[in-house]
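Retry 2 of 3 after timeout on previous attempt. Resubmitting structure tokens to design endpoint.
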């Protein structure tokens, strides 16, 4: 099938690469000329495991352009995968969605086109995008556009596992008020739904995956599914962190508590890892948008709001824990291990590390940082943060009064912690992710504390 994708961020690029890899002809469009030129040369604007390999496998079936006239005419499916960043009131900024819909309306042709909201958008956006496309087409040619339908196909990708989640998803959700649109998207995804494609050697098919459920709904339900799913996952993280605070008070081990409740199949073990909480582009933005949407209908969402509050408090607890250990922050040096909001990505959006660094600097501390992947992005996007960047994790320990494990990169477990203890002024580490082996850290000369439990 002929596919167009508007936006080459995490969602757009990984979706385009995977669809091209399984046999579709895909054109990715972006308004940033530097990004398009880099992609044409083989450069990749994001860090994602195996993205270079799958782009190479997609080959000539995947191309990049800045021009809507190159991408839209003849496309059977057009994905909108533009950013919807939060506004000051928590609602999403839809300016890029509006621009994309208007441009699509100017260039639609062909027998029938399915326009798909892949971006996370407010409930009701499908109908709004449809009206924008019609208005744009009428303004350009004075008549209704070629036949089209709007669908919602929310993504459930985890950064760091986005390609795996694209090829082997838990489910595919398609929301549309047009049966024809559902048929088109079912055919588009058939190789994934039936798992009939040949899996790449670097992304092997998990055992037991033979078919993928297709959930078909109306537009509004599909839009709400995305928000509700992310809100529920955020709730699980905040819940176990709240339990962790109690565990700390009563002398319980929150990791064992999480294991004990997670083995209940009604609950599950995933997203029950206590620590600094969630970051990234999705949970904060989507929970905020859900609360804002409810407010539009004179409803409150106290559970979701509480999850957001607990998550922010986890970052503040880092300073509380360090103050309890160091007593005075002014003049102290604190090292942060990890900047990205999670491992296997360089994404710094809503990263706990940034809030922690700002809070420590505001209290007079010197902050030194390291991340195995996110350093270039941090230097570029947060040059004014006021931290000192270190080229190695070992350098973070030099004359440090405390270290904070912020991102659970695997390589941080394999550091020569005994040697690092000798470089530090005070061998104290605050494990923000329940990631380090406390017994081993003690043998290596470190006093190790955890953020909760």
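Retry 2 succeeded. Sequence:
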């Amino acid at each position: 099938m002929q596919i167009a994708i508007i936006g080459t961020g995490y969602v757009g690029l990984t979706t385009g690469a995977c669809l091209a890899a399984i046999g579709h002809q895909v054109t990715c469009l972006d308004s940033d000329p530097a990004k398009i030129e880099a992609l044409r040369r083989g450069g990749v604007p994001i860090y994602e495991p195996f993205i270079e390999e799958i782009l190479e496998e997609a080959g000539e079936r995947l191309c990049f352009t800045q021009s809507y006239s190159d991408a839209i005419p003849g496309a059977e499916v057009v994905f909108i995968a533009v950013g919807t960043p939060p506004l000051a009131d928590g609602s999403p900024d839809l300016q890029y969605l509006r621009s994309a819909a208007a441009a699509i309306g100017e260039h639609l042709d062909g027998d029938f086109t399915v326009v798909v909201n892949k971006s996370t958008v407010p409930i009701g956006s499908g109908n709004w995008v449809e009206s924008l496309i019609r208005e744009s087409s009428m303004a350009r040619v004075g008549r209704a556009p070629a036949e089209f339908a709007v669908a919602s196909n929310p993504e459930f990708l985890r950064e760091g596992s986005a390609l795996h989640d694209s090829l082997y998803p838990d489910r595919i959700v398609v929301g549309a008020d047009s049966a024809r649109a559902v048929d088109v998207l079912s055919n588009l995804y058939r190789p994934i739904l039936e798992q009939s494609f040949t899996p790449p050697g670097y992304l092997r098919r998990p055992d037991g995956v033979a078919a993928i459920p297709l959930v078909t709904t109306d537009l509004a339900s599909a839009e709400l599914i995305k928000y509700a799913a992310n809100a529920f996952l955020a709730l699980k993280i905040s819940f176990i962190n709240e339990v962790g605070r109690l565990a700390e008070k009563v002398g319980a081990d929150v990791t064992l508590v999480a294991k004990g409740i997670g083995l209940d199949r009604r609950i599950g073990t995933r997203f029950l890892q206590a620590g600094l909480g969630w970051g990234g582009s999705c949970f904060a933005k989507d929970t905020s948008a859900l609360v804002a949407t409810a407010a539009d209908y004179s409803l409150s969402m106290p559970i979701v709001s509480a999850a957001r509050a607990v998550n922010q408090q986890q970052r503040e607890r880092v300073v509380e824990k360090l103050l309890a250990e160091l007593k005075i922050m002014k003049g102290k040096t604190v090292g942060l291990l990890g900047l990205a909001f999670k491992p296997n990505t360089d994404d710094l959006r809503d990263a706990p590390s940034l809030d922690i660094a700002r809070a420590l600097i505001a209290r007079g501390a010197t902050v030194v940082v390291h991340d195995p992947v996110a350093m270039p992005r941090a230097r570029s996007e947060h040059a004014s943060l006021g931290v000192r960047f270190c080229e190695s994790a070992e350098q973070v320990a030099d004359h440090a009064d405390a270290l904070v494990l912020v991102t659970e990169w695997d390589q941080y477990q394999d550091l020569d912690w005994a040697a690092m203890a000798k470089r530090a002024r005070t061998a104290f580490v605050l494990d923000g992710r329940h990631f380090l082996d406390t017994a081993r850290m003690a043998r290596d000369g470190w006093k190790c504390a955890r953020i909760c439990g």
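Attempt log closed. The mean pLDDT is 94.
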